[in-house]
Amino acid sequence: MELAEAISGRRSIRMFDGREVEKDLIGQLITAATYAPSRMNTQPWHFHVAVGESRKAVAEVMAMTTAYLEEYLDILGPEGVEHAARFYADLGSAPVVIAVASPVTGDPSVDRDNAISVGAAIQNLLLTAHDLGLSSCSISSPHWIRDRLRSVFKMVEGWEIISLVVLGYGAEEPHERVRHTDVVTYLT
User: Fold this and answer.
1) How far is it, in rounded angstroms, from Cα 142 to Cα 147?
2) CA-CA distances (angstroms) from residue 100 to 141, 161, 163, 175, 184?
3) How far from 20 is each of 7, 16, 17, 67, 114, CA to CA, in Å?
4) Of 51, 34, 54, 30, which Cα lies nearest the Cα of 42?
5) Helix spans in the chain (H)
6) How far apart are the first and last CA of the chain?
7) pLDDT of 77 strictly over 90
8) Nearest C-alpha neighbor of 155 from the set 71, 70, 50
9) Helices 108-131 and 23-33 meet at what angle, rounded to 10?
10) What is the pLDDT of residues 144-162, one digit of tens each?
11) Coil, helix or strand for 178?
12) 23 C-beta neighbours (distance < 10 Å), count
């Protein structure tokens, strides 16, 4: 697959068929993620991969998210809240959940740079997944359950979850969404 095709064809998938993802494919995704650029090559990321029983534990914690969805009723609307609740109930049957974490330094400039680097690593991971025929969705770590997620992922002190990536073989057909066109200002 050409890079431009991977970029324009990748979609966030939230329904999976539950089939296991081979460990070597997960390894390829992590390797691709580590080739992302980072400030002074600090590579400020760590990937916590949950499959099997640990994945079930993550899903149980994520299911607690539905208790907080009412706060988003005005933004998502009733249908959006219902769709989100179904997804969070079992993470769309995704067999793999990857917590992407970064160290917290307390320096706002460094933490911002780390978040940008981690975002680039996640994009490498998502594009590689698409290239390998896998489906994925990067979701912000819900802040109201982050401590429970950190515990399930056995995360050491000083690190925070930036995103969860759910991964597997898609069970839904992705649809293209309209892209904003008023996103650039050229200075001449």
Assistant:
1) 10
2) 9, 6, 5, 26, 29
3) 25, 10, 9, 29, 31
4) 34
5) 3-9, 23-33, 52-63, 73-90, 108-131, 146-152
6) 36
7) no
8) 50
9) 140
10) 788 899 999 999 999 999 9
11) coil
12) 11
From residue 62, give the alpha-carbon distance in Å to each of 12, 163, 164, 180: 18, 13, 10, 31
Which domains occur in the chain, in start order? Answer: 3-168 (3.40.109.10)
Nearest to 63 by CA among 145, 123, 2: 145
Residues 6+ apart with CB under 8 A from 120: 36, 37, 38
In one-letter notation, the amino acid at residue 76 is: L
- What's the rounded Cα separation, in Å, for the pair 171 and 167? 11
Sequence-ordered list of residues with C-beta below 8 angstroms from that of 124, at least 6 positions apart, any chain: 32, 33, 35, 36
Q: How confident is the model over 24-53, as pLDDT tens digits? A: 999 999 999 999 999 999 999 999 999 999
pLDDT at 63: 83
